[in-house]
Amino acid sequence: MTPHQTEAGSQIEAAVLRAIEKVNELLPESQRLAKSRDTRLLDDGTELDSLSIVNLLIFVEDELSDSLGREISLTGSDDALDFPAEDLRSMGSLIEALQRRLFAQQ
Known about the structure:
globular; single chain
């Protein structure tokens, strides 16, 4: 990984963590997400409903746009279709998928 990719990877992770904070503001305390790569999204052990997942993805899109100045669609384009469910199993898999996708576009 190049130094630029390392920095961008850190920015991607920070953007996802900020998106978690925004989603947590909308959730009851018992459903709030931990800011950890191990936090489950679409896997066993999560209490998130589909609306919470969509909100998270929209917040991630917004945060990535703000921090990296790059648009990425996770919810409403043909690009979103090649974002498989296994990439949404956990925060860590989401971050890694975003890094792969953004680095491939460079």
